[in-house]
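Hey, can you fold this?
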Amino acid sequence: MAEQIHYRPAEAKRFREETLDEFERLQGRVAEINGLLDELYDSGLIRWIKDFAGAFPQISSIAVEGMNTPEGHAGMRNLLVVAKQLGKIDPDQLERTFEAANAGLAKAGEPASEDTPYNPPGMTGVFKLLHDKELWATLSPLIAGAKAYSEAQRRQQSEDKSDSEKS
């Protein structure tokens, strides 16, 4: 029977120049990955991921059981409706709206100071408020929004009536 030849040329013991360059370039990345793994292990995240992966069959069966209820179906459908409607809104407009609502809630949440007396406007004050341009500039968007909401509700109700009459 033939024996295996154990001969290696002298060049085989050395890396080629391009291989050395590639090895040196990747050596820093490998060190960073090892450091990241050490930090993840020390923080306990790797153990948590391992435990979660081990418990995934039980977790998924609980989630599926929860989804197979009328509440689960309604919840998923509601989430899809919210996502669909959020997709129609310009993100900048939504951000401005939330900032304005946050500013309004912050102002409304401030306690009234005790040194500011409460002076009800009286009848003449009410008539003056009716001509206050700043007040109407503030209320106009709210009134327009209420009108649009009401119109959309009426339109939806008329569509629902026409759909039920067709059935």
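Oh, and this one too while you're at it.
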Amino acid sequence: MPLFGQLDLGTIAPRLPTLPDLDTHAWTLPGAETMQLLLETPRGAADALLPKAMHPAVPSYLAFTFTRCPESPVGPFTFATVRLGSRAGAHPRGLVLGAYASTPEAADGLRRGWGIPASAAKVSLTRRHDRLMGTVVKDGTTVLDCALVNPEAISGSDVQLINWVTMANAPLDGTTSPMLIQVDPKYVFHKAERGRPEVSVFDPAAWNAGPLQPGNPIVATVATVDTDLPRIRFVMDPAKPVYQGTRRIRESRADE
């Protein structure tokens, strides 16, 4: 029997970002460096953070991502997300729990364009000889300090960057209500490395992550890519199974 999330939408709807419309313009992000750390997390607490439309991953895991963008429509910025591993139907997805961006312009654009719950903070991605370190400092407090340790070169075809789902209040058919929004960037790989994920500081309250804490390491990757944040193509009713509640907003990415 399939498993579903157990989130009570009423507990989070007031804090969700609100999109003015679903006609988001794509952002092209060439030459970005993106780091993804995957670590297991306790299953019971994870189910309570997933909407009923989505299936929990088995085992449950958290994805910590940092992306440094030297070019974008709002200028250079770095942003970080914490996502909860899950599935939308048969497709693996990472539900964005929290996000921070290094400039107010980027944070505002992420919230208004895709419903990514971003706030401005000090976000950095720093390379040392034996590791790549990601940190987020909010109001003088470190809320995330993590690293990819001992990177080794691999092929970009060996990297699986999991597509995102965000939850936001968005207008559809004359009504603004909570929706799941699919964010499915494209990636052209120029360089990739793999290593061991390590999280030394994680404040779950700062990431809307309830009681979740990272556990056993799975894998860490970093890649230099040409990527994007695309126009919204699909939205989903968070209270219905995706095969019942998915709406197509546009046919393809050809007009981006």
